[in-house]
Each structure stands twice: as C-alpha cells, then as structure tokens.
Amino acid sequence: MATSRPQPAIEVSGLTKSFGEHAVLRGIDVNVPAGTVFSLLGPNGAGKTTVVRILTTLSSPDGGEVRVGGRDPVREADAVRALIGVTGQFAAVDEVLTGAENLQLVARLLHLGRKETRRRTTHLLEQFGLAEAARKRAGSYSGGMRRRLDIAMSLMGEPRIVFLDEPTTGLDPRSRRDLWSAIRGLVADGVTIFLTTQYLEEADQLADRIAVLDGGRIVAEGTAGELKRLVPGGHISLGFTDEHGLAAAARAVPMAAADPDQLVLQVPSDGSVGDLRKLLEHFDDHDITIDQLAIHTPDLDDVFFALTGSSAKGAQL
Length: 317
Description:
This protein is of the alpha/beta class. The protein has two domains: 219 residues, 3-Layer(aba) Sandwich (Rossmann fold); 62 residues, Alpha-Beta Plaits (2-Layer Sandwich). It has a six-stranded mixed sheet with strand order 5-6-7-3-8-9, with helices on both faces. A four-stranded antiparallel sheet has the order 11-12-10-13, with helices on one face. A three-stranded antiparallel sheet has the order 2-1-4, with helices on one face. Strand 11 and strand 12 form a beta hairpin. The radius of gyration is 24 Å and the shape is elongated.
C-alpha cells in the first residue's frame, strides 16, 4: 500500500507581483518540506521581502498559487497567522519591559491563560538562554540578547512555521552563532524555517535548501553543495620557495596559472582526493618540491556572484 507524502509547509507556484509597471516577482516556484530550513538569497531589490510579505499575509500577490500550512494567505489570512511566527530585520521588543514581560505581553495578545503563559514564558526564556536576564529591562540587553528575545516572542504562539527575515543583521560573530544554535534547536523540534539572510555563510550553515532570487525570478535552487557545483573555479594552489621551482612546476602543468610575485601556481581542479593524488604524483615524477598547498572549491560567494551578476557587492544580499 502506497503511503502519501507529507504536505509541504510552504507551496508557491507561479507567484507574480508588480508595483505599478515594475514587476518585482515574475513567476516564483517554491516548495518547502515541513521541519526544514529554506533560505532565500538575492541582491537588494531582488524581491525577497516581497515574497515574505505575501507568505505572511502582509501583501497580496497579483497571480499564482500560494499555500502556507495548506492555507491560502489571502482567503484564509487569520488561519495562516495562527500557524506562523514572524521576525523582521529589526528587533520588535519593548525596551521598557523586562524580557519576561515582553513574552507575557505577547501571551495576552494571544489570549493565553495564566498557567499557559507561565509555562511558555519559562520554556522560551530557558530555550534562548535568557532565564538569568528574565527580570532585567530589555533595554539593557545586548544586541544578540534582544534578537533572541525577539525570536522567542514570535514563538509564543507555538507556530510550526517561522519566517526569519535577516535575523542576524548587525550581530557580532559570537551572537550570530548563538542564534544559529537556537535556530537549529527549533528545527530539531520540527519547526519549519523560512530564512532570508545577508550572510552567505549563514545559509551555508543552516539551510537544507537554498534558492537564489534575481530579477524577480529564481535563477537556481538546491542544497549548498549542489549550488556550489554549478560554478567553475575550483583549483589547487601550490606555493614554491623560489622562481626556479615555480617555473619547473608551470612547465610540468601547462594549463596552470603562475603568479611570479607570490610564487604560487593555481591548478584547475575539483579538489577531490583523486585529483590531488594525481597532481602530487606528477610533480614527484618531475622531481618538483612543493612548499605549500591549499585547495579552493567554489563557495556560496562564488555562486552568488556568478548567478546574480556583477551589480552585487560584497556578501550582502
């Protein structure tokens, strides 16, 4: 007997949206399995925030089919809002209230009873490492603590689908990694995460699948590994102690690119063990001594620049 596949947490087909004569989304297809992290990358103005606004009932599409938790965000907006949690780019905490009071305020808006409010508040403060600071004013929190509190507030309704719009913008590396750990914990509990981020490393670390949005269209989608394989440019970088050694190596591998100033030779390669072994054996046959060796394979930076064009600057999406 065949078993039915579980319903995706988010389904988008042919999504379009224009503002005046400017087409922001030109037919977007997205499928996010429940209990996974899906990351949407793209340069500024690509349409990432517009997608999030449509999925979270804050904006209406011009065309296409959209389902969040099996519900239509336009026709069943209240039902969708009951299923989701949303954290925007800037923390929405009340800095006058304590951490616990911020969570309790959300509980009152959700019409939770006292016992349930107490249970969820205690659980979330512990889950996000805020228990010791629960009675301190949120205005005294560090940026990372405020961000964790902000996400905790979005989880007060125990949503199964959470939208995180650039959640770690402005955080220092330690705070960013602390938040990554909290996000991994949510996924381990079965929560689905829809993530937009300006940090390529963040998508690489967290996402089960990544879609690259550019010019209103998804130009590539897959796992981080699959996307990296789309881009050429992998190489083995070999360092030498003198020009003689570099010249001999360049003659032995004509397709390599030599840098006389740095005494480095770059040999095109996929970085595999087999490829590396062949290269080293080849140099051994020619009695060439290598001083340093490094392997470079394409990363998400390479993918981003290759797929979205030269207008993108740095790692910001």
